Amino acid sequence: xxxxxxxxxxxxxxxxxxxxxxxxxxxxxxxxxxxxxxxxxxxxxxxxxxxxxxxxxxxxxxxxxxxxxxxxxxxxxxxxxxxxxxxxxxxxxxxxxxxxxxxxxx
Length: 106
What we know:
CATH superfamily of one domain: Bifunctional nuclease domain
Largest sheet: 4 strands, mixed
CATH architecture of one domain: Roll
Oligomer: single chain
Radius of gyration: 15 Å
Helix content: 25-40%
Structural class: alpha+beta
């Protein structure tokens, strides 16, 4: 079963219902060549489901160059909601996740 850090779950909920988040959302990772805080987040891709864990990438543009950055999925979803950018998930990943979670439950 996938578990979202409680504080990140609270942030996601507050963004979805339109209340102010108590915890500021920031990037706590570095990327060679640019500052993610100064780049434009264009979308989020949930790109993998392995060992019952989702994996995500943030897609940025900075000075007309595109970047893909690995990011924890809860943080990626939170940033996407806050930035009002699309979140993409391949149907095959959703099917795989559903199948593996059903196997755990049974």
